[in-house]
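User: Look at the shape:
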Amino acid sequence: MFVWPAAALFTMIRRLHDIGRSGFWVMGLILGEIALVGGASAVVDQQTAESLASLAYLLVWIVLGLLPSQKATNRFGLPPGKRAMALTVS
């Protein structure tokens, strides 16, 4: 039951590291989603509010997926392409 949300969380943290951001940004996304559901449920029914929050979360995923990774090594390690090459060379 908790495997899918945990996998999504860890994938998002790793993606944030690829673009040079801290994994703590995920907390902002989670709190933003909670605030969106809470605020929207005051105006529309709970199911519609949850659907809007899911749509917003999906849009964040799409934006994060489209952002280019940093080309140079950052504080989180090698870029994704160079990481794969380092593993095969070692």
